[in-house]
Specification:
The chain is mostly helical and 343 residues long. It has 2 domains: 32-89 and 176-343, no CATH class; 93-174, no CATH class. Helices cover 59% and strands 0% of the residues. Helix 3 packs parallel to helix 11 and helix 10 (219-232) crosses helix 11. It is globular, with a radius of gyration of 20 Å. The N and C termini lie close together (12 Å).
Length: 343
Amino acid sequence: MMGNWWRVFGRERAVEPSSAPRSAAPEPELPVDAAAHDTVSVDVIAERFFRFILNQPVSAGDAPNKVREQAILQRLRDQCDNGRFDVRSLPRMPTVLPQLMRAMKNDQLSGAQLADLIKRDPVLVGEVMRVTGSVTYRTAHPIGSLQHAVVLLGQIGLRHVVTSYVMKPILMASAGANGQIVGQRLWDHAERCGHAAVYLSKGQCDAFEAYLIALVGYSGLGAVARLLDKELQNNELPASSAAFVEGCVQIAAQLTVQAGQHWDLPAAVQEALVEHAQHGQAALTQPMSRVLHVAQRLAMCQLLSEQGLLDGDSDPGYGSDPIATFPPQLLARCQQDLRQSFA
């Protein structure tokens, strides 16, 4: 995975975030015959994905119990609306992370200064040493110090190690003790979403912040899954309706915003999460929230196709998405890159 991520992040350019959307650079024509593929509704793909993540039945079935569903959704809202959700129940990010995130955006910071920050978290030290000891970074001489390892990783590699080390256990834990399946699925999507977000961020927003927001973009789903487990006492809700799934997703979006505040994420990331949660069917104005919206959906398609829940040759029709438009050829190239990296 490190090699794939490095290949994408290696294309990163220093781009300052903008307050208004900018047009992506024209992409070369691809030999893609869109008419040759069946187009699957954006809404169908999203519903199928959220059912998969929440470990719900893959379809609404014949007779959803809408009265019971509404009662469950109301109890979830009672626990979550207007800031009532206890964010202290979410896993905390290591205290050193905000400092590291700021430091890693400073090109003038030396390897020794970064190493001094990393030393404050023994587990992170072990992760950095483990990665630099892998085949990907194998050198002629053994790595003798943390500073040597940090210099060998470089800014780009270190960003990946830090965010992956932090976010994977958080997503795994956010779904609760009985949510290992949900947590792993959240992380699988987050990896693919981060990959796509970096690809799409060129000319739009800061690549590292795009990667970070992609990792946390559906973190609220883990909390909703944990609350559902308590409501259902670990039993499946039979024949859940599309409206029930959508209600869970709306609650999760608000919890994701609260999680971003709880984790003290960069201001630009928090602002994009707020717009992303509130947009409904309105166009997104912030470049980072546009990147997140499209990257999430491309990652949905990739993960569902890997799981056999979507034909890998299906055309998701995102080129005509009214919420966050990107050139269709750019989306096709990003989708091909995801397939090569994860299939």
